[in-house]
């Protein structure tokens, strides 16, 4: 009885996870996936074993599948290979690593004059702006949906070092 | 679409799904059980991998949805069965030929360098 209750809870959670798939994929295969998930849970429970390990594995596996299907749908996989797409994501992450390393080594140092780290940060900010603008100008008209998703990633990546610097008051 | 066409090597998931469907139409759980049996439990596919592969294989024309229900009395009517197509059989045959060639090469060069082949 307790196992059945757990199974239906897992089923409900799995239904939520399936919502991460693109709508077209979900409409076509979602029911089959949910049935398969239920079958595997029941088989496990019927064998007198806990369903949790296989449920955990299926959750991770399905989440990866959802990411893959979304990438395929948006063709982000192809576009993300363009330097104008990945540079504005990679550069802020490198900048964040630089800022955190700097703080770890020297602590939060506030000086009146701008030192080399500040100049590097400003240089990055300019490069970031130029690359994001270049990407937007080139790809937004061609593939608006994919480009918007990548732009969102670029903006979120840029917020990380900016937010860290603001938060620490550097 | 690599891995789901007859042009290049198939991914392990695609190969095992084709093998499972070569002997009859099956639904998702049926495919998974057959793959598990065929691979002696070595190939583990979750719903994400299975249905992702099925989507790509349908697009590549290797399999299609089947109208046939194996046993309507015993089975859930809503279950979708899949069947292998002619292109799927051709891709499977080509892949198995590739495997046979690899095995033939491996047999020809046996014993492998570093084993007991010195002086032979």
Mean pLDDT of chain A: 84
- The backbone outline of chain B, from C-alpha atoms, is globular
Any idea what the shape of chain A is?
elongated
The biggest beta sheet of chain B is recorded as:
2 strands, antiparallel
Strand content of chain A: under 5%
Q: Low-confidence stretches of chain B at least 5 residues in length (pLDDT < 50)?
A: none
Beta fraction of the residues of chain B?
5-15%
* Oligomeric assembly: heterodimer
List SSEs of chain A in N-to-C order: HHHHHHH
Largest sheet of chain A: none
Q: How are the SSEs placed, and which strands pair?
A:
The complex is a heterodimer of chains A (170) and B (120).
Chain A lengths: L1 H17 L4 H24 L5 H23 L1 H4 L3 H24 L9 H24 L4 H25 L2
Helix pairs in contact in A: 1-2, 1-3, 2-3, 5-6, 5-7, 6-7
Chain B lengths: L11 H11 L5 H11 L8 H13 L3 E4 L14 E4 L1 H23 L12
Antiparallel strand pairs in B: 1-2
Helix pairs in contact in B: 1-2, 1-4
């Amino acid at each position: 009885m307790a196992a059945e209750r757990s199974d239906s809870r897992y089923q409900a959670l799995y239904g939520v996870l399936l919502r991460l798939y693109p709508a077209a994929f979900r409409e076509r295969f979602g029911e089959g996936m949910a049935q398969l998930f239920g079958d595997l849970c029941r088989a496990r429970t019927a064998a007198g074993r806990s369903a949790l390990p296989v449920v955990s594995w299926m959750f991770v596996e399905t989440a990866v599948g959802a990411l893959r299907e979304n990438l395929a749908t948006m063709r982000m996989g192809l576009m993300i290979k363009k330097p104008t797409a990945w540079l504005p994501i990679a550069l802020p992450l490198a900048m964040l690593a630089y800022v955190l390393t700097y703080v770890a080594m020297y602590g939060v140092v506030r000086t009146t004059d701008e030192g080399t780290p500040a100049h590097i940060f400003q240089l990055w900010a300019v490069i970031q702006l130029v690359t994001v603008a270049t990407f937007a100008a080139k790809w937004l008209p061609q593939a608006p949906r994919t480009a918007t998703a990548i732009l969102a990633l670029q903006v979120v990546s840029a917020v990380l070092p900016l937010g860290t610097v603001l938060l620490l008051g550097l | 679409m690599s891995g789901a066409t007859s042009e290049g090597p198939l991914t392990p998931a695609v190969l095992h799904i084709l093998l499972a469907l070569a002997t009859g139409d099956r639904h998702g759980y049926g495919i998974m059980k057959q793959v598990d049996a065929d691979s002696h439990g070595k190939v583990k596919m979750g719903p994400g991998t299975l249905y992702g592969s099925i989507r790509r294989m349908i697009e590549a024309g290797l399999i299609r949805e089947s109208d046939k229900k194996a046993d309507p009395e015993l089975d859930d009517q809503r279950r979708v069965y899949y069947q292998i197509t002619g292109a799927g059989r051709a891709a499977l045959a080509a892949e198995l030929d590739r495997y046979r060639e690899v095995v033939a090469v491996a047999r020809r060069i046996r014993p492998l360098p570093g084993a007991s082949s010195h002086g032979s």
